[in-house]
Amino acid sequence: MFSLKLWACALPVLICAYILVPNVVLADSGDWDDLEATIENEVASTSAQSDLLDAFDDIQTAISGGCEGYQQAVIDFAQALMDVSADITDAEFLAVDAAFATAVNAETTCSGGVADPVVLLNDLKCLSTGRCYSEWPKSCYQGHISGPPGEEGTYYCRQKVSD
Amino acid sequence: MESLGGSPDGRHWRFSAPSSGCLDGVRLGARFFAPTLLLAAGAAKLMSFAESVESGRRMLLLVLPHAHSWTLSLIDQVVPALPFVELALALGLYLAWGRVFRFIAYLTLILAVVFVSSRAALMVRGLPVACRCFGPASSLPHSDNILLLLTGALVLAGAILAYGGDPLERNGVECSL
């Protein structure tokens, strides 16, 4: 009986920790240097690597330039990632996508008004589970940047859905 | 509260603690606040069902970044059922008593904890995900903050009722003695 009561008290706390801890870790980890390193180390194709690094430089330029054009640069990077997705492996794509999503999410200097982390993490989720959800916006399946169905931001998804 | 004390009966001594009147009042408030809030949330979700389901699914997907596929399948199953679960819990809290009541109160607590934790996780990560928890009313100014406040109160109410029991039943027991 005691252990049942103990579990009854502990369960809400455990649930809270299960939800909060990974998110706190995610919020505090990753930056743009990690993304650059991931591109350089993980992507084998030199042309894909070059395209991604160009898009990455645009983000860095936007950040150092007072955040002007930051959101567009983020979207352009997502677009660049989609464009090279056919030339890189699933593992490479996933590594860059994860680093990208984490870096955008961890960005604090230019975080104002950027809704894209939602999108990026949506897409990351889509990829990491190996499938997209049936209710996913059609634009996600089509693999192009488009307006969102809601107010969360701009959606993007890779062209090749592995399902 | 005089009728609650003065008897050598063990149960009476327990209820004649100095602050029991205040605590009973809090429990009584929780007893009606929790089901009313659940009723409002469930009904509002049903009124804009598709939006609520999509919003709820998105929120849970985001706050479970390392979830396994079975968890994601569970989300698919649970989120559309959420309004009905809320209405059932509300009904249960209004009508049930005894251990069933406490169990329903406990389920309410778990539901509220999941929700509050999820919203807190989104805030920590700075993800601007709108909550359609109260249907069209969720679009009102400051609705997210009000919602967080209400759900925080629901966590408290659920905990009070789940761990403290049904105030109406206790009063009934006292009155009958």
Report on this model:
- The complex is a heterodimer of chains A (163) and B (177).
- Chain A is mainly alpha-helical.
- Chain A has one domain.
- Chain A is built from 7 helices and no strands.
- Chain A has helices at residues 2-28, 32-42, 46-64, 70-83, 90-106, 116-128, 138-142.
- In chain A, helix 2 runs antiparallel to helix 3 (46-64).
- Chain A is elongated and about 60 Å long.
- Chain B is an all-alpha fold.
- Chain B has one domain (19-176).
- Chain B has 7 helices and no strands.
- Chain B has helices spanning 10-15, 20-47, 49-63, 69-95, 98-125, 143-164, 167-176.
- In chain B, helix 5 packs antiparallel against helix 6.
- Classes of the chains: A mainly alpha (163), B mainly alpha (177).
- Looking at how many chains there are and whether they match, the oligomeric state comes to heterodimer
Distance between the termini of chain A: 47 Å
Percent range of helical residues of chain A: 55-70%
As residue ranges, the low-confidence spans of chain A are 112-163
Provide a brief overview of the structure.
Chain A has 163 residues and is mostly helical.
List the defining traits of the structure above.
heterodimer, A: 163 residues, mainly alpha, 7 helices, 65% helix, 0% strand, disordered C terminus, B: 177 residues, 77% helix, disordered N terminus
What's the layout of helices and strands?
The complex is a heterodimer of chains A (163) and B (177).
Chain A: H1 2-28, H2 32-42, H3 46-64, H4 70-83, H5 90-106, H6 116-128, H7 138-142
Helix pairs in contact in A: 2-3, 2-5, 3-4, 5-6
Chain B: H1 10-15, H2 20-47, H3 49-63, H4 69-95, H5 98-125, H6 143-164, H7 167-176
